[in-house]
Amino acid sequence: MQKGELQLVRCRRCRMIYANPVPAEFASGEYYDRAGGDYYLSPAKLESDYAAVRFERELRLFRKHCQGGAVLDVGCSSGAFLFQLKQRFPGCYQLLGTDVSGSPLDYAESRGVAVVRGSFLEQDFGGRQFDAVTFWAVLEHLAEPQEFLVKAASVLKPSGLCFVLVPNMKSLAGRLLGARYRYVYPQHLNYFTTVTLRKLVEERFSVIESRSTHFNPVVIWQDWRGGGREVSNRERAQLLQRTTAYKQKPWLRPVKALYGLAERTLGVLSLADNLVVVLRIRD
């Protein structure tokens, strides 16, 4: 698949779809430190990320499997997931975030989220071990996602948990739109399916839960009409802000009920926008 300068190829052995070549700024993470603030610290993005409804699916799943302990959020950006965890379940967790993007980490600290700066692969955390490591929408951005999972396994306690969320290449949106889908873009280096995600994680982890989740019909409609034009970070943040606002309006509850039914149906068919796996480190 070709989209502008982005070229996607499929591994003949494992069937993984990935970008080749990978621009150096994305492989190193330099892009996120240099340009991260413009998007992750935009008012629309921050308002959405810190809204109570923003991580409701992730929080439900996380609480189902991990009710307390030390948590490391890799690629934490402005710290919103950890902030929500701290606010909703005070005293239950010892929280730490890490990222390569400096200015969003400054914001995370301003909201009381403890952070470690720099490449996750180069950090030793002073020998600290964690009960859970999270990768929310992170592995698709990495040139070597396997190395990050190896590192996660090394900092987890025995029977520790790892939570991974990635875009679903075989979602309804992906099937309908192909290269026109806005999430086929240079910042995404890996394009996962249920099969390839399991192959990636199963060397060091057991899959204890797997699901397909999230659905945004507005994205399908906009990308279909737009014919695959590039969607700016500003537009992405504004759409996130609008959809987050819709979720909080009481008078839209009947629409939300229909939307929830559609999302659950797509989830059963593995056609929702994202794939999520809950992993336990192998003995």
CATH topology (level 3) name: Rossmann fold
Q: If strands are numbered along the chain, what order do they take across the biggest sheet?
A: 6-5-4-7-8-11-10
Continuous helix count: 12
Task: Give the averaged pLDDT, no decimals.
Answer: 90
Number of strands: 11
Task: Assign a percent range to the helix content.
Answer: 40-55%
Q: What is the gyration radius calculated from CA atoms?
A: 18 Å
Beta-strand residue fraction: 15-25%
Short description:
This protein is an alpha/beta fold. The chain contains twelve helices and eleven strands. The strands form two sheets. The chain has a seven-stranded mixed β-sheet with strand order 6-5-4-7-8-11-10, sandwiched between helices.
Overview of this protein structure:
- With 283 residues, the chain is α/β, with parallel strands linked by helices.
- The protein has a single domain (2-281), classed as Rossmann fold.
- 41% of the residues lie in helices and 23% in strands.
- It has 12 helices and 11 strands.
- It has helices at residues 24-28, 30-40, 43-49, 56-65, 80-88, 102-110, 145-155, 172-177, 194-201, 217-226, 233-247, 253-268, and strands at 2-3, 6-10, 17-19, 69-74, 93-99, 115-117, 130-136, 156-167, 190-191, 205-213, 274-281.
- A 7-stranded mixed sheet has the order 6-5-4-7-8-11-10, with helices on both faces. Strands 1-2-3-9 form a 4-stranded antiparallel sheet, with no helix packed on it.
- Strand 4 (69-74), helix 5 (80-88) and strand 5 (93-99) form a beta-alpha-beta unit.
- Helix 3 runs parallel beside helix 11 (233-247).
- The radius of gyration is 18 Å and the shape is globular.
- The termini are far apart.
